[in-house]
Amino acid sequence: MNRNSILFIVLSVFTLFVWYFFPPQNQQLPQESAPAQNNVSVSNTGKIAVRRANKYSEENINIETERYKAVLTNKGAAILSWVIKEKNGQCVDLVVPESAPVMANFPDEIYKIVSKSDKEVVFEHVSPYGWKITKTYNFSNLYMHQLNVSIEKNTGACFPKIVFKWGPGLGTDKKELKENNLVTRVSAYTASVPSKFEKLKNASKSAPLYKWAAIDNKYFLAAFIPEKPADFDKIVSFRPDNKHPYFLALTATADKNVNKKDYSIKFYLGPKGYKLLKTYNLGFEKTVDFGFFGFLGKIAFAVLAFFHKLTGNYGWAIIMLTTVIQILVLPLTLKSFKSAAMMKNIQPVVKDIQTKYKDNPQRLQAEMLNVYRSQKVNPLGGCLPMLLQLPIFWAFFTMLRNVYELRNEGWILWIKDLSAADHFMRVGSFNVNLLPLIMGIGMFFQQKMTTATSDPTQRKIMYIMPIAFTFMFWSFPSGLVVYWLTNSVISIIEQYFTIKKDAVRVKRV
After folding, report:
1. Would the pTM of this model clear 0.85, i.e. be above it?
2. pLDDT grade, residue 12 (50/70/90)?
3. 46: how many CB neighbours lie within 10 A of its CB?
4. Mean pLDDT of the residues in the chain
5. 3-state secondary structure 86-106
6. CA–CA separation, 195 vs 112, rounded Å?
7. How far apart are the C-alpha atoms of 255 and 241, rounded to whole Å?
8. Nearest residue to 184 (alpha-carbon basis) of 213, 163, 214
9. In sequence order, which residues have a C-beta less than 8 Å from that of residue 112 and are 6 or more positions away?
10. Could you read off the pLDDT of 96-107 as tens digits, one per residue?
11. Domains of the chain
12. Neighbours of 358 (CB within 10 A)
């Protein structure tokens, strides 16, 4: 393999595995306000507040269905915990403990519990400032729910500013915690036609311009859909730095000339299964990251889902899809292998020319071009076909790394979760992952078949590649390793027959 091919592989790997993070700008957190009234003194307000705070005691309310288990509190009429029940029995709390409770309004106030059931919980708080707030949670058996907030005020009183806030952060399981803060983000879907999915960094956006706003991580989503976006002022996203996750807030301020205002928000709390999100017909599926070549990733996922229906196993589906992709790009692959084989065969001639004309660069270049022309070899022939294949493999790589459908799905033997490293065995505190080792060995033999033995430096570089890939893939999801391993095995077979068929003698020029 020539130096251009080596450079191409190194740059591709660098592009695939390096993420860039930029520190955001600071922004103040939105705060709910309870405006002071001219006819209520500070001392009287304090006495009333203390007396009302002692009227009710804190109480938690448990709601449980087959898909989730929620814990609400009457302090702030908020959500303390929202645990998603996954199909393997694992439970994931979407409320980060440090941010609990979420969706609170006036979190220091103890609300009266008007009514509670598995379907509906109603909270009520009467403020000394002359207004009353009623919060009603309506629960479904699936992942979409509703929150209604009604505020009434006395004549002369002012409406408070309302904030619906989730975070900072969105919960996940232990194996995803390491990168969770980095992948948690805030996004929104515009109300314009055609609608557009936007990722919101540290930002304050006009709420009426969007259909919904959401906070999500790799596998889970918390999305909020106002019934009337015009009722809200801003969508706010913020995090102080890259080490901390975002929070999402929707703010609302009612017209001072009205005496009653109702807010209604639907909210989705659940997994980011692509097929599941599409059923809501709201654009939620846009939150699933298929990468830069997303259209190719979606096609690959559709085919993967088809093979899963046939086999009932995503591991075999990955192998079948990888095989199909290799068949589709076979003409390009064969052209790349043939060019690499020819370059390998002419290396002795090239080395002789380089030695003979090392002090004459112009003659050296002319003689090299003459060799390439006479042997009908294109120095870039092994690189360009690989470059054309890169979007396909990149899309497949990103898809396998992010789709929820692979989560908790096993393949064979010790591989119980294709979305996690395979963890074959444990030696002390060290996890031995067998799949990356097998993959690295396969890549070693693949490089040995194509590396030009006349160039010791080049040979050393290409033998380092399998070691580097083994380390990079060590903690990657096993579904990705199955893909790369299958790809290497098929490539070895193709290379073997290509080299065997196209082995030729090269005449010295």
Report:
1. no
2. low
3. 11
4. 81
5. CCCCCEEECCCHHHCCECCCC
6. 41
7. 35
8. 214
9. 55, 56, 74, 123, 124, 125
10. 999 989 999 998
11. 3-16+294-502 (no CATH), 117-287 (2.70.98.30)
12. 9
